Amino acid sequence: MDKKNALRAGALAAGTTLMMLLMSSPALALNRDDGDDPGTGLSVIETLGLYVLLPIGLFVVIAGLVMVADKSHQKKDPTSSNVRTKADAKA
Q1: What is the distance of C-alpha 36 from the center of its chain?
Q2: How far lies 25's CA from each of 19, 41, 57, 66, in Å?
Q3: Of all residues in the chain, what percent carry a pLDDT higher than 70?
Q4: The model's pTM
């Protein structure tokens, strides 16, 4: 991609993002909607546990399961395991 196309794509992405931010309502609006019942908020510990520690823990568990499953199978490569480096022929 040349510079002109990259600049055009960047300007389009920035303009689209700016328009979406300007047209969206504020996230922390003071006016409640009809039927809105937000409940209690999360504490800092609960938020960190839910959005940081839980995904990291899931990643570690999945990676561990993949490593255990991978090590349980011996590599059986018939093309390279039968190769001998010394020649058997005598001249």
Answers
A1: 32
A2: 12, 20, 35, 43
A3: 70
A4: 0.45
